[in-house]
Write a structure and sequence with these properties.
By secondary structure, the chain is an alpha/beta fold. It has twelve helices and eight strands. The radius of gyration is 21 Å and the shape is elongated.
């Protein structure tokens, strides 16, 4: 088992730590550098991992085979630059920060650093995540396997061949949960307007979404096939879907996802230009 270091101990780091430990990774081989003392104590108590303050990040990095940068994008430049002198042993460095590309990370960490960019989403907190992964040219096959194993512990992990496609992953699965939450919210709202009590409408809307997702996962049919199977000719579902089509829901979804991907690219330009704090 490789030694694993997390820089940052927030919710996504906690989900990854819990997932890999559940998968058999020894807690004794996991260290978390976290600035908040209460958070450090909770991590040690909950998972049995070693903890350290952010001031010890460089020392911890010098002994780690895999380093996960789980900090906010706004502080990534300072954090990464502080680690650059501790990576002579060529560890794998994984970033889960949105909007920071490998060029920026390599500029702060060193051009030859083995880098993986990961874009997980919030259902990872329930081990139901969807993560897109991109590896720089310096990443070895064993390092690639280690990155995939890490994120497979919290859901599904899929590789993309081009870094620009991380923006597409962001638009699809990174931001995607909010799209479904919005649809649930709107379905509940309209059902209430049509007379259902709020609690009944809410439970039915959520369970409908859960059931549909379970069918999509377990049936083996495509989403298009499932939609066709539940759409009877001249029935209620056909009427509803026709209204969606009339208002061009496909174009609405296309524009929303293109907008999210464009914003992801903008963030890369903005955050990649950041300089470390003096």
């Amino acid at each position: 088992m490789h030694s694993l270091l997390f820089i940052g101990g927030g919710n996504m780091a906690r989900s990854l730590i819990g997932g890999v430990i559940a998968g058999g990774h020894p807690p004794a081989q996991i260290t978390v550098c976290e600035p908040n003392e209460a958070a450090r104590q909770a991590l040690a108590a909950d998972f049995g991992v070693s903890v350290a303050s952010e001031r010890e990040s460089a020392r911890c990095a010098a002994a780690a085979e895999v380093i996960v940068l789980a900090v906010k994008p706004q502080v990534m430049a300072a954090v990464a630059s502080g680690l650059s002198g501790s990576l002579g042993h060529r560890p794998l460095v994984i970033s889960i920060a949105a909007g920071i590309d490998c060029a920026a990370l390599g500029g702060w960490l060193g051009a030859q650093t083995a880098l993986v960019r990961a874009m997980p989403n919030t259902p990872a907190l329930l081990c139901q995540g969807s993560t897109g992964l991109f590896a720089s040219a310096a990443v070895s096959a064993p390092q690639r396997a280690a990155a995939e194993q890490l994120f497979a512990a919290i859901g599904t992990a899929q590789w993309v061949a081009e870094e620009a496609l991380i923006d597409t992953v962001t638009a699809l699965s990174g931001s995607g949960p909010a799209y479904f939450f919005l649809l649930i919210e709107l379905m509940q709202k309209v059902a209430e307007e049509m007379g259902l009590p709020a609690d009944v409408a809410g439970q039915l809307a959520v369970q409908t979404a859960r059931g549909a997702a379970s069918m999509a996962v377990e049936s083996g049919d495509s989403a298009a096939e499932l939609r066709a199977k539940v759409t009877s000719p001249a029935g209620t579902t056909e009427r509803a879907l026709a209204i969606f089509a009339e208002h061009n829901i496909e174009q609405i979804v296309r524009e929303a996802m293109l907008g999210a991907a464009a914003r992801s690219a903008e963030m890369a330009a903005e955050l990649g230009a950041a300089t470390p704090n003096p």
